[in-house]
Amino acid sequence: MGICWSDRSKSLSPPKGLTRFKSKRGDGEHSHISSSKVSSASIPVTPRSEDEILQCSNLKNFSFNELRTATRNFRPDSVVGEGGFGSVFKGWIDEHSLTPTKAGTGLVIAVKRLNRDGVQGHKEWLAEINYLGQLSHPNLVKLIGYCFEDDHRLLVYEFMQKGSAENHLFRRSSHFRPLSWNVRMKIALDAARGLAFLHNSDAKVIYRDFKTSNILLDANYDAKLSDFGLARDGPIGDQSHVSTKIMGTHGYAAPEYLATGHLTAKSDVYSFGVVLLELLSGRRALDKNRPTGEHNLVDWAKPYLINKHKIRRIMDNRLEGHYGLGQAQRAANLAFLCLATDPKYRPTMNEVVTSLEQLQKPSEVLRSEREGHNGQSNGRTKKT
């Protein structure tokens, strides 16, 4: 696979005011942020033409008629998701030829059809192809192909049977049973591995829009990151950050990024901390229906995260206490570290993955390992 990553160029722009807009994602309203605040630092851009990006991808170029057939003419009962981009339809194609098949046969796909009047436009559509057309990892949703025909913009993904983590955490429905502690920690680990891969890849990609609605689950609750429309190339050389428009979702974006427009991998780490907190508490990052003082999840929960006597106050009642208190404390402490106001005190995503891997082990195994390690240390001490 050829490497077709974008070059960098310098750009200057005067600061402008912060703007807000809302778009429907999943089952709720998400307040998104957008600003053109930039500094004189170099800004990653994609100077390549559309043709160059499309030619670099390892994707199938579907015709509009093929996708219309695969989705049964985009029938309303085929809709599996709605968002600021438009609608997502369920469809079927042959696993080998990738041609449309009869409903219920072949490979199940999700077809995202860009709404021409939506808040996500051609640039985000192209960014999806730019990244997912070149990157492959078990914890990134697989992009199979795209359609670029007349004014039609569509993307074709593998179908994720369980939908988004957001729905399972926050939607009250018989279709969405409360997630168990083990499943929540598995989702956290899978998502962390996806982010770590992006940060460690040759491209050093910053995801920029990490949130529960962008974490999709397959039939086995394996989690994969989706929606790369806001992803950006990370800093290169001796650069410490990328200066860019402030984009993302309120409640998830790192404070230093909101204040300066300086984007780093640690911005994603902060967002991960917010999501981990959502997994622990079953609360949304922002929820104005909560009592005064509890609207912002991070502000409300942070004082409890490192107090072992108060940790139960933030835990989701739907867990019904079915979790190890020690594991909950370690997960809460990890969230606290990820949410550090100063980004230099946040862990890397590799360190987050290591911590979460330890949390997958039963408490008695961890206890045995610690006791074994302490015994070895004591033995060495006695011999010295």
UniProtKB/TrEMBL annotation:
PROSITE patterns for the chain: PROTEIN_KINASE_ATP, PROTEIN_KINASE_DOM, PROTEIN_KINASE_ST
Biased composition (Basic and acidic residues): 364-373
Domain of life (superkingdom): Eukaryota
Gene Ontology biological process terms, A to Z: defense response
Enzyme nomenclature, EC number: 2.7.11.1
Region (Disordered): 1-46, 358-384
Entry keyword set: ATP-binding, Cell membrane, Kinase, Membrane, Nucleotide-binding, Plant defense, Serine/threonine-protein kinase, Transferase
Protein name per Swiss-Prot or TrEMBL: non-specific serine/threonine protein kinase
Organism name: Cucumis melo (Muskmelon)
